Amino acid sequence: MFNKYLEDYEVGERWISNSRTITEADLVMFSAFSGDWFPLHTDKEYAANTIYKQRIAHGMLILSVSTGLLHFEKGVVVAFYGMERVRFVKPTFIGDTIHLETEVIDILEKDEKTGIITIKVDIKKQTGATVAVNQMKMLINKRP
Predict the structure, then answer these.
(1) Mean pLDDT throughout 74-86?
(2) Measured between alpha carbons, how far is 63 from 58 in angstroms, rounded to an integer?
(3) Distance, CA of 59 to CA of 134 (rounded, Å)
(4) Is the pTM value of this prediction over 0.90?
(5) Is the pLDDT at 1 greater than 90, yes or no?
(6) Domains of the chain by range and CATH?
(7) What is the DSSP string of 33-66?
(8) Cα–Cα–Cα angle for 2, 126, 132, nearest 5°?
């Protein structure tokens, strides 16, 4: 997605990522890394007695995995600039396979060398259901 210089993007441009399956190991490793051991993510018996009836992936895990599904071209991308309007709209379960559907919604020149690309991100699972949404901003180089 982020493999072109600022001038090469157009508002309305769309892109679909590869997919990735969320595993139990992902939940355990994310819990260890983040320190978030909330039982909805880590306790099978606790989660069985919730509205979800099973463990769900951490929302922040899903956002983290989603960044790994994007393509960042060295020399084009300057930095991650931010994320807005983040919502977790449906649960992601162990065994769900997620992918991204994106659309460029804004292109803003920042200075003589860079600009900001804003994309709408829908994180979807294999059923077609959207599990999370956000607007991601990336600082991108202009053509040298």
Answers:
(1) 95
(2) 9
(3) 12
(4) yes
(5) no
(6) 6-141 (3.10.129.10)
(7) HH----HHHH-HHHHHTSTTSS-B--HHHHHHHH
(8) 55
